[in-house]
Amino acid sequence: MSTMLSTAAPTATPEGIHRACHGDRRELARLVELLLPVLSVEVGVTLQRRGRLQSRDARQDVDDFVQDILVHLLSEQGKVLRRWDPTRGRSLPSFVRLIARHRISRSLEGFRGNPWNSHPTNDDRLDASDSSPSRRIESRVQLTTVLDRIHSQLNERGVRLFNFLYVEQRSIAEVCELEGMSRAALDQWNARLRKLARRLRSEGET
Amino acid sequence: MTDDDLLLELGALQHKRDAEQEDWEAVARGEVSASRLVESSVAAGADRARVEQLASVLGPPTNRERWVEVALAATRRGVETPKTPAPKAHPRRSTALWWATGVAALAAALVLLWMVLPQATDDPGLPVYTVVVRNETVQTHRGDASSEGAYRANSDIRWVVQPNSATRLAHDVAVLARRPGAAPQLLFPPHDVTSISADGVVQLRGRFGAVFPLEPGRWELQIVVGLRRPADISDFESGGPWQVTAPTVVNVLP
């Protein structure tokens, strides 16, 4: 449910990113201004959903994870960030958001705690096939947890493919072209994803 | 539900999350006030406490210069000539001379390497850490080598906590102390006994009682190194942006 309050986010260019990562401080400041909101929101909402914003200094917790992801993006003169190609169907904020999603999901999955014990949110309102309230709540929790675990189990490319195919619902042909994959390779990946989703869902039911 | 249905449901859930996040990003950019988004979200049915909690952590950054410095340091990471991370050699010669003249003490100098258990993720941002004990213990003074170090409060210690690759993400240190039959404790070594090099090598150096203020007995110590230190045991057990070494056993003498 978007409240449609936001305006378009500022953008960057590959040339600007290159300059920022090679010592142009002004460009770097501009890049940081663009990246921080994307990273902090991805981290903040994820930590809240996983019940991890309970400490006395929740803002510091968010900042710590944001710093980790920022360093990952910008290390070695922006090696990861400079992989962004605006012609490959994704804006810079979207590109960065997916990387952040993957990284924080892996971090949280790797620490202690059973992800199936995470507190359910009440803002994921999806209708399940079973109409009883208890089954709807159980379905919401399962879907939320399966989604979180999928992000932690996929690599960065897998997170992009999932987003292209199932969030943005782009065609197979388009995704093949954007990712430089053959149809057969994408079908194989899709088959593995189905198996993963099925397994994660069964684990949540047991 | 078929596998495809499941994936489509998951995609729809993520799409919904993304739409909500766009509004929060506008708050984080300072384009929209947090209070306005809180009220509009609550009006649309969101839980007020949860929305207000998000609003408290997602405002515009207060220290932009610090973030630019972090970014600048990050771009340089991995670009300089890699060097084996090592702490600075101690400048004073008197310690080395003392060791040279004390044959038994020199021969009995303990260098204990503990392999780190895979307790944390393989997150490349936080390397694996190993404890290297470079001090003498009470037992080595007596010429009695043992796998467990014995210390008194006034024992001089020098523990090097070494990453397996250089890192700029080691900002703080804590120590988890456990003993049988007692609740675990978190210790926070004071800054004058703790140093962290630019490559993330941690050194704990000083009197044992100042570094590890523990009661007499057998303790297992684990060094916690990361972006921040855990605030307390509960925070530590919840997990966070740190790595934890394998236990180092010490006997604290009265």
Question: How would you concisely characterize the structure shown here?
Answer:
In chain A, 67% of the residues lie in helices and 0% in strands.
Distance between the termini of chain B: 66 Å
* Rg of chain B: 24 Å
β content of chain B, as a range? 15-25%
Kindly state the percentage of residues in helix of chain A: 55-70%
Give the rounded overall mean pLDDT of chain B: 78
Characterize the largest beta sheet of chain B: strand count, sense, and whether it forms a barrel. 6 strands, mixed
Helices of chain B, by number, come to 9
Count of DSSP E strands of chain A?
0
Following the backbone from N to C, one meets helices and strands of chain A in this order, namely HHHHHHHH
How many separate helices of chain A? 8
Structural class determined from secondary elements of chain B: alpha+beta
SSE class of chain A: mainly alpha
Quaternary state reads heterodimer
Low-confidence stretches of chain A: 1-6, 111-134
* Extended strand count of chain B: 11
